[in-house]
C-alpha cells in the first residue's frame, strides 16, 4: 500500500465523522468502500454464520480438481457470470485465490517453466496497473522478468502480456498489442462489471482473472478467481496455491459465495419485481460521481479527463457510458500533478507509477461519499 498511507485516517470510518478542513484525502488506492450503504441496507440477507466446528479442514472438496475451492463459491461464480454475461464459464477450470493479486502470481508461475534459458518477459501496454510491475519484480524471479510497456516491446522469444480491460488506471477497453505466436496472455477483468462499463460481449480467453474486491466492493475478504481453459495451466496454478498458502480461507469463500449468490438471484428476479439490484444501484452511483467530477473538471481549463464512447450493454439492455473505478486526470502543461494535488491535501497516484507522465494522476472514484464530496470541493477550488 506504500508509505503515503502512514498517518492517514482509515477511509472506511471517515463517514462516521464530519471531515475537518485539513482532512487528508487519500485517493491513492482503489479501496471500494462506496458500496457499503447498499450492503448495509440488505441487513442480514448476506449474513453468514460459521460455527466453531465448521470449515476446519484444509480441504473444501478433496475429490474436486481445485480441492480448496468451496463448491458453493464455484456455483455462485458460474451463476453470476451467466447472469451478467461477461465471461464464458462452460468447460472452464475455476481457481480461487487470496484476491486476484495472488492469482496473478500463480498465473505467472503456471505460464513459465523452471530451467528456461532466460526469464520470460512480462509486458503490459502503458499506462498499466502499477502493482503488476511491483508484483513481477519483487521476488527477482528467475522464471519471469518485467519488461514494461507492451507498445515498445521488441525482444525476441517467449513473453507474457497482461491485458487489463477496462484498464486501470485510464478506464479504456483493451486488447493485446504485441500479437506474436510465442506470447501467452493474462486478461485481468477486475472492472468488467456493469457498474464500470457496458457489458458488450461474453469474453472467452485462455486465462482470465476476476476479483470479488471490485465486483461487489468486498476487498477485505481477499477473494479472486481465475477462469482457465487449459487443464495443465489450471493444475500449475493450483500447485502454486498449494505451495504458497495451502489454499484460500474457507470463511472468506463462504462469505463471497453468499454475497455473489444474493446478487445473482436479485438480478434474475429484478425484471420480475422491478426493484433495484446491486449492479443497477452501483451503476447509478458511479454515473452520479462521474457527472459531478466532469462538472468540477470542466471549470478548470488546465485539467482534462478521458472521454469514453457509449455502447450497448447486454446486461442492462441500454446504451451506457463507462464509469471507471479510477479517474485518469491530466494537467495541460508539464506539471507534477500529484504534487499539486498533494498541496491541496489530496493524495493520488502519480502517472510515472503507471509508465506514464507526471502530468497525469490516478484518482480513486471508490471512496466513501463524504470523502468524494470533499475531494470535489477541493478540486473545484484548484487554481
Ligand atoms: N487487478 C486490478 C486491475 C486491480 O485494480 C486490482 C485492485 N486494485 C487487482 C487486480 C487486485 O485485486 P485483489 O483485491 O483481488 O487482489
UniProtKB/TrEMBL annotation:
Its cofactor is pyridoxal 5'-phosphate. Keywords: Aminotransferase, Pyridoxal phosphate, Transferase. InterPro entries: Alliinase_C, Alliinase_N_sf, Ethylene_sulfur-biosynth, PyrdxlP-dep_Trfase, PyrdxlP-dep_Trfase_major, PyrdxlP-dep_Trfase_small. One of its GO terms (molecular function) is transaminase activity. It holds the Pfam family Alliinase_C. One of its GO terms (biological process) is amino acid metabolic process. CDD domains: AAT_like (cd00609). Gene3D superfamilies: Aspartate Aminotransferase, domain 1 (3.90.1150.10), EGF-like, alliinase (2.10.25.30), Type I PLP-dependent aspartate aminotransferase-like (Major domain) (3.40.640.10). Residues 25-382 form the Alliinase C-terminal domain. Homodimer. Belongs to the alliinase family. This is Alliinase C-terminal domain-containing protein. The lineage of its organism: Eukaryota, Viridiplantae, Streptophyta, Embryophyta, Tracheophyta.
Amino acid at each position: 500500500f506504500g508509505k503515503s498511507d502512514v498517518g492517514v485516517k482509515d477511509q472506511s470510518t471517515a463517514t462516521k465523522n464530519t471531515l475537518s478542513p485539513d482532512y487528508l484525502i487519500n485517493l491513492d488506492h482503489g479501496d471500494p468502500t462506496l458500496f457499503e450503504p447498499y450492503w448495509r441496507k440488505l441487513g442480514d440477507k448476506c449474513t453468514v454464520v460459521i460455527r466453531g466446528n465448521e470449515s476446519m479442514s484444509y480441504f473444501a472438496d478433496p475429490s474436486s480438481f481445485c480441492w480448496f475451492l468451496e463448491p458453493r463459491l464455484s456455483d455462485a461464480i458460474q451463476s453470476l457470470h451467466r447472469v451478467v454475461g461477461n465471461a464464458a464459464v462452460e468447460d472452464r477450470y475455476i481457481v480461487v485465490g487470496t484476491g486476484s493479486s495472488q492469482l496473478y502470481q500463480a498465473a505467472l508461475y503456471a505460464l513459465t517453466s523452471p530451467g528456461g534459458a532466460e526469464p520470460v518477459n512480462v509486458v503490459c501496454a502503458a499506462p498499466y496497473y502499477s502493482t503488476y510491475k511491483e508484483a513481477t519484480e519483487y521476488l527477482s524471479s528467475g522464471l519471469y522478468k518485467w519488461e514494461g510497456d507492451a507498445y515498445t516491446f521488441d525482444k525476441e522469444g517467449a513473453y507474457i502480456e497482461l491485458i487489463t480491460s477496462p484498464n486501470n488506471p485510464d478506464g479504456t477497453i483493451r486488447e493485446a498489442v504485441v500479437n506474436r505466436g510465442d506470447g501467452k496472455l493474462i486478461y485481468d477483468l477486475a472492472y468488467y462489471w456493469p457498474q464500470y462499463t457496458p457489458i458488450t460481449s461474453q469474453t472467452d480467453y485462455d486465462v482470465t482473472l476476476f476479483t470479488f474486491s471490485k465486483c461487489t466492493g468486498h476487498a477485505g475478504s481477499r477473494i479472486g478467481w481465475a477462469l482457465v481453459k487449459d487443464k495443465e495451466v489450471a493444475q500449475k496454478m493450483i500447485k502454486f496455491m498449494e505451495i504458497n498458502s495451502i489454499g484460500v480461507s474457507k470463511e472468506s469463500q463462504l462469505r463471497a459465495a453468499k454475497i455473489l449468490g444474493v446478487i445473482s438471484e436479485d438480478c434474475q428476479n429484478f425484471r420480475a419485481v422491478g426493484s433495484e439490484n446491486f449492479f443497477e444501484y452501483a451503476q447509478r452511483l458511479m454515473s452520479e460521481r462521474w457527472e459531478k467530477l466532469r462538472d468540477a473538471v470542466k471549470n478548470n481549463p488546465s485539467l482534462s479527463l478521458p472521454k469514453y464512447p457509449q455502447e450497448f450493454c447486454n446486461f442492462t439492455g441500454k446504451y451506457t457510458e463507462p464509469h471507471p473505478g479510477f479517474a485518469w486526470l491530466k494537467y495541460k502543461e508539464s506539471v507534477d500533478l500529484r504534487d499539486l494535488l498533494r498541496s491541496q491535501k489530496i493524495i493520488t497516484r502519480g502517472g510515472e507509477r503507471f509508465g506514464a507522465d507526471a502530468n497525469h494522476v490516478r484518482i480513486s472514484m471508490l471512496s466513501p461519499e463524504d470523502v468524494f464530496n470533499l475531494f470535489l470541493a477541493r478540486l473545484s477550488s484548484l487554481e
